[in-house]
Design brief:
Layout lengths: L7 E7 L6 H11 L4 E6 L6 H7 L3 E4 L5 H15 L4 E4 L11 H8 L6 E5 L6 H14 L11 E4 H7 L12 H9 L4 E5 L16 H21 L9
Parallel strand pairs: 1-2, 1-4, 2-3, 5-7
Antiparallel strand pairs: 4-6, 5-6
Helix pairs in contact: 3-6, 5-8, 7-8
Organism: Thioploca ingrica
Keywords: Transferase
Pfam family, one: Glycos_transf_2
Protein backbone atom coordinates (compact mmCIF):
# COMPACT_ATOMS: atom_id res chain seq x y z
CA UNK A 1 0.00 0.00 0.00
CA UNK A 2 1.43 3.37 -1.02
CA UNK A 3 1.66 5.99 1.72
CA UNK A 4 0.97 9.44 0.27
CA UNK A 5 2.99 12.35 1.64
CA UNK A 6 0.54 14.32 3.78
CA UNK A 7 -0.80 16.92 4.03
CA UNK A 8 -2.05 17.27 0.45
CA UNK A 9 -3.60 20.33 -1.23
CA UNK A 10 -5.57 20.14 -4.48
CA UNK A 11 -5.20 23.56 -6.14
CA UNK A 12 -7.78 24.58 -8.74
CA UNK A 13 -7.52 27.97 -10.49
CA UNK A 14 -10.96 29.05 -11.66
CA UNK A 15 -12.46 31.94 -13.58
CA UNK A 16 -16.16 31.92 -14.42
CA UNK A 17 -16.43 28.13 -14.04
CA UNK A 18 -19.85 28.05 -12.41
CA UNK A 19 -21.00 25.22 -14.70
CA UNK A 20 -18.22 22.80 -13.77
CA UNK A 21 -16.50 23.72 -10.49
CA UNK A 22 -19.03 22.02 -8.22
CA UNK A 23 -18.78 18.75 -10.17
CA UNK A 24 -14.98 18.87 -10.14
CA UNK A 25 -14.86 19.32 -6.35
CA UNK A 26 -17.47 16.60 -5.77
CA UNK A 27 -15.49 14.14 -7.90
CA UNK A 28 -12.32 14.86 -5.92
CA UNK A 29 -14.07 14.36 -2.59
CA UNK A 30 -15.56 11.08 -3.81
CA UNK A 31 -12.14 9.84 -4.87
CA UNK A 32 -10.05 11.18 -1.96
CA UNK A 33 -11.09 12.03 1.57
CA UNK A 34 -7.88 13.16 3.25
CA UNK A 35 -7.06 16.18 1.06
CA UNK A 36 -7.76 19.91 1.17
CA UNK A 37 -9.38 21.33 -1.96
CA UNK A 38 -8.40 24.95 -2.60
CA UNK A 39 -10.08 26.96 -5.36
CA UNK A 40 -8.24 30.10 -6.39
CA UNK A 41 -10.88 32.38 -7.85
CA UNK A 42 -9.35 34.56 -10.56
CA UNK A 43 -11.83 37.44 -10.19
CA UNK A 44 -14.84 35.51 -11.50
CA UNK A 45 -17.96 37.46 -12.43
CA UNK A 46 -20.36 34.58 -11.89
CA UNK A 47 -21.18 32.31 -8.91
CA UNK A 48 -17.97 30.29 -9.05
CA UNK A 49 -17.05 31.27 -5.47
CA UNK A 50 -20.48 30.46 -4.08
CA UNK A 51 -20.63 27.05 -5.76
CA UNK A 52 -17.07 26.16 -4.73
CA UNK A 53 -17.74 27.05 -1.11
CA UNK A 54 -21.01 25.10 -1.12
CA UNK A 55 -19.13 22.07 -2.46
CA UNK A 56 -16.75 22.23 0.50
CA UNK A 57 -13.67 23.89 -0.97
CA UNK A 58 -11.48 26.52 0.61
CA UNK A 59 -11.68 29.57 -1.68
CA UNK A 60 -8.95 32.16 -2.17
CA UNK A 61 -10.46 35.16 -4.00
CA UNK A 62 -8.18 37.40 -6.03
CA UNK A 63 -9.22 41.09 -6.17
CA UNK A 64 -8.34 41.24 -9.88
CA UNK A 65 -7.47 38.68 -12.53
CA UNK A 66 -3.89 37.37 -12.50
CA UNK A 67 -4.37 34.73 -15.18
CA UNK A 68 -3.97 30.97 -14.79
CA UNK A 69 -0.36 30.99 -13.61
CA UNK A 70 -0.88 33.90 -11.21
CA UNK A 71 -3.78 32.01 -9.65
CA UNK A 72 -1.77 28.79 -9.42
CA UNK A 73 1.17 30.56 -7.81
CA UNK A 74 -1.20 32.11 -5.28
CA UNK A 75 -2.33 28.58 -4.44
CA UNK A 76 1.25 27.34 -4.18
CA UNK A 77 2.14 30.18 -1.82
CA UNK A 78 -0.87 29.29 0.29
CA UNK A 79 0.21 25.64 0.30
CA UNK A 80 3.73 26.64 1.36
CA UNK A 81 2.49 28.92 4.14
CA UNK A 82 0.08 26.26 5.41
CA UNK A 83 2.90 23.67 5.34
CA UNK A 84 1.43 21.28 2.79
CA UNK A 85 3.99 18.73 1.62
CA UNK A 86 2.26 17.86 -1.65
CA UNK A 87 0.26 20.01 -4.07
CA UNK A 88 -1.77 18.86 -7.05
CA UNK A 89 -2.83 21.43 -9.64
CA UNK A 90 -5.77 20.70 -11.92
CA UNK A 91 -8.16 22.58 -14.19
CA UNK A 92 -11.64 23.72 -13.22
CA UNK A 93 -13.26 22.94 -16.56
CA UNK A 94 -13.82 19.24 -15.90
CA UNK A 95 -11.23 17.85 -18.32
CA UNK A 96 -9.13 16.16 -15.64
CA UNK A 97 -10.37 12.92 -14.09
CA UNK A 98 -10.30 12.89 -10.30
CA UNK A 99 -9.25 9.25 -10.32
CA UNK A 100 -5.98 10.30 -11.99
CA UNK A 101 -4.96 12.10 -8.78
CA UNK A 102 -4.04 8.95 -6.77
CA UNK A 103 -1.79 7.87 -9.66
CA UNK A 104 0.10 11.17 -9.47
CA UNK A 105 0.24 10.97 -5.67
CA UNK A 106 1.71 7.49 -5.80
CA UNK A 107 4.48 8.66 -8.11
CA UNK A 108 5.24 11.93 -6.25
CA UNK A 109 5.65 9.91 -3.04
CA UNK A 110 8.80 8.41 -4.55
CA UNK A 111 12.03 9.91 -3.16
CA UNK A 112 13.38 10.04 -6.72
CA UNK A 113 10.70 12.39 -8.05
CA UNK A 114 9.90 16.07 -7.40
CA UNK A 115 7.28 16.79 -10.07
CA UNK A 116 4.79 14.57 -11.89
CA UNK A 117 2.94 15.67 -15.01
CA UNK A 118 -0.26 13.94 -16.09
CA UNK A 119 0.25 13.57 -19.83
CA UNK A 120 -2.39 13.20 -22.53
CA UNK A 121 -0.77 14.37 -25.79
CA UNK A 122 -3.58 12.90 -27.90
CA UNK A 123 -5.73 15.91 -26.98
CA UNK A 124 -3.44 18.23 -28.92
CA UNK A 125 -4.89 20.00 -31.94
CA UNK A 126 -2.75 20.70 -34.98
CA UNK A 127 -1.88 24.14 -33.61
CA UNK A 128 -0.92 22.69 -30.24
CA UNK A 129 1.22 19.94 -31.80
CA UNK A 130 3.13 22.52 -33.83
CA UNK A 131 3.80 24.58 -30.69
CA UNK A 132 4.86 21.53 -28.68
CA UNK A 133 7.27 20.30 -31.37
CA UNK A 134 8.81 23.76 -31.69
CA UNK A 135 9.42 24.14 -27.96
CA UNK A 136 10.72 20.61 -27.49
CA UNK A 137 13.32 21.40 -30.15
CA UNK A 138 14.15 24.83 -28.76
CA UNK A 139 14.39 23.87 -25.09
CA UNK A 140 15.62 20.30 -25.29
CA UNK A 141 12.84 19.24 -22.90
CA UNK A 142 11.50 15.89 -24.21
CA UNK A 143 8.15 15.85 -22.41
CA UNK A 144 5.29 14.82 -24.67
CA UNK A 145 2.64 17.09 -23.08
CA UNK A 146 4.10 20.50 -22.33
CA UNK A 147 0.86 22.25 -21.36
CA UNK A 148 -0.91 19.78 -19.08
CA UNK A 149 -2.40 21.50 -16.03
CA UNK A 150 -2.61 18.27 -14.04
CA UNK A 151 0.62 18.23 -12.04
CA UNK A 152 1.91 17.06 -8.69
CA UNK A 153 4.59 18.96 -6.78
CA UNK A 154 6.53 17.96 -3.68
CA UNK A 155 7.69 20.41 -1.02
CA UNK A 156 10.89 21.35 -2.88
CA UNK A 157 8.97 22.16 -6.05
CA UNK A 158 6.29 24.09 -4.16
CA UNK A 159 8.99 26.20 -2.49
CA UNK A 160 10.69 26.98 -5.82
CA UNK A 161 7.50 27.90 -7.66
CA UNK A 162 6.19 30.04 -4.80
CA UNK A 163 9.33 32.19 -4.94
CA UNK A 164 9.60 35.61 -6.68
CA UNK A 165 11.64 34.12 -9.54
CA UNK A 166 8.52 32.31 -10.76
CA UNK A 167 6.20 35.30 -10.55
CA UNK A 168 6.44 37.03 -13.92
CA UNK A 169 5.24 34.19 -16.12
CA UNK A 170 2.21 34.43 -18.40
CA UNK A 171 1.88 30.69 -18.82
CA UNK A 172 2.45 27.71 -16.54
CA UNK A 173 4.16 25.46 -19.06
CA UNK A 174 7.61 26.21 -20.50
CA UNK A 175 8.64 28.90 -18.04
CA UNK A 176 7.77 26.70 -15.08
CA UNK A 177 9.35 23.61 -16.62
CA UNK A 178 12.59 25.46 -17.31
CA UNK A 179 12.72 26.84 -13.77
CA UNK A 180 12.29 23.32 -12.43
CA UNK A 181 15.01 21.96 -14.70
CA UNK A 182 17.45 24.73 -13.93
CA UNK A 183 17.01 23.99 -10.21
CA UNK A 184 17.78 20.32 -10.84
CA UNK A 185 14.37 19.05 -9.79
CA UNK A 186 13.35 15.68 -11.18
CA UNK A 187 10.30 15.56 -13.44
CA UNK A 188 8.40 12.47 -14.47
CA UNK A 189 5.52 12.18 -16.90
CA UNK A 190 2.76 9.59 -16.60
CA UNK A 191 -0.10 8.88 -19.03
CA UNK A 192 -3.62 9.86 -18.02
CA UNK A 193 -6.99 10.27 -19.72
CA UNK A 194 -8.84 13.55 -20.06
CA UNK A 195 -12.49 14.32 -20.68
CA UNK A 196 -13.39 16.59 -23.62
CA UNK A 197 -13.73 20.24 -22.64
CA UNK A 198 -17.39 20.85 -21.78
CA UNK A 199 -17.31 24.61 -21.36
CA UNK A 200 -15.42 27.41 -23.12
CA UNK A 201 -12.20 26.94 -25.10
CA UNK A 202 -8.44 27.18 -24.71
CA UNK A 203 -7.33 30.79 -24.52
CA UNK A 204 -4.02 29.90 -26.19
CA UNK A 205 -4.80 27.34 -28.88
CA UNK A 206 -8.06 28.67 -30.25
CA UNK A 207 -6.63 30.77 -33.10
CA UNK A 208 -3.48 31.29 -35.14
CA UNK A 209 -3.10 34.77 -33.64
CA UNK A 210 -3.20 33.44 -30.08
CA UNK A 211 -0.77 30.64 -30.93
CA UNK A 212 1.62 33.06 -32.67
CA UNK A 213 1.63 35.39 -29.66
CA UNK A 214 2.16 32.46 -27.30
CA UNK A 215 5.01 31.02 -29.40
CA UNK A 216 6.81 34.36 -29.68
CA UNK A 217 6.48 35.09 -25.96
CA UNK A 218 7.59 31.59 -24.93
CA UNK A 219 10.43 31.42 -27.48
CA UNK A 220 11.93 34.59 -26.01
CA UNK A 221 11.55 33.11 -22.53
CA UNK A 222 13.19 29.83 -23.59
CA UNK A 223 16.13 31.59 -25.22
CA UNK A 224 16.63 33.80 -22.18
CA UNK A 225 16.58 30.84 -19.80
CA UNK A 226 18.90 28.76 -21.97
CA UNK A 227 21.38 31.61 -22.15
CA UNK A 228 21.27 32.31 -18.41
CA UNK A 229 21.94 28.80 -17.19
CA UNK A 230 22.71 25.26 -18.16
CA UNK A 231 19.96 22.77 -18.95
CA UNK A 232 19.50 19.67 -16.87
CA UNK A 233 18.13 16.31 -17.85
CA UNK A 234 14.46 15.39 -17.80
CA UNK A 235 13.07 11.98 -16.88
CA UNK A 236 10.02 10.64 -18.68
CA UNK A 237 8.06 7.44 -18.27
Amino acid sequence: MTIFIQPIAILIPAKNEVNTIGKVIAAIKTCLTDVTVVVIDDASQDDTVKIAQSAGAKVLSLPFSLGAWGAIQTGLRYALKQEFNTAITMDADGQHEANSIPVLLERIASPSCDVVIGSYPQRGSGLRQIAWAFFRHLSGIPLTDLTSGLRAYNRAAITLLAAPAATLLDYQDMGVLMLLHKAGLRIQEIPILMYPRTNGHSRIFNSWWAVSRYMLHTAILCLAKIKSGKKTQCHTK
